[in-house]
Amino acid sequence: MASRITGALPSNPSAQVQAVIDWMFAMCEGDWDKLESVLTEDFEATILPKSLNFPVRNKAAWIQYNKDAFPIFTDFKFHIVEIVEGVNAVAVHGCSNATTSTGHPYRNEYSLFLHLTRQSDGRYRLKQEKEFIDSQYIVEFFSAEKKRQEAAGNTVYW
């Protein structure tokens, strides 16, 4: 599992950072039950910049969005460039690396701003995600990939 996340992984992460690492593993592995367990019931995810017109998604919608989008990737990996921790917040600069089922590379850069809440057992769960992505790359990649997926006879939900 650790090979899916590389880079600046702390050897002894705080409880907040551990929650973020758990979230990253769930995303990279497509473990939707684990993803559900690391998000608060009132979780909200926003993909930015706003010019991309992605809706704010609640917990259920965010999990479903990822369930629909991730199957096109055969080997999703995330490289952490930097993690910055604050009070009930963690910021991550990172990059993804994957190959699609049509054989095309996917490389994106992210700035993630994650707000967390401490649970009664001392663990943290993610309450809010603000995900800044490489907007030009995303528009170009997914437009082309949608055509490739449809040409391959695959149903596309995005």
From TrEMBL:
Pfam families reported in the protein's UniProt record: SnoaL_2
Domain of life: Eukaryota
InterPro entries, sorted: NTF2-like_dom_sf, SnoaL-like
SnoaL-like domain sequence ranges: 23-122
Coiled coil, from the record: none
Protein name as it appears in the record: SnoaL-like domain-containing protein
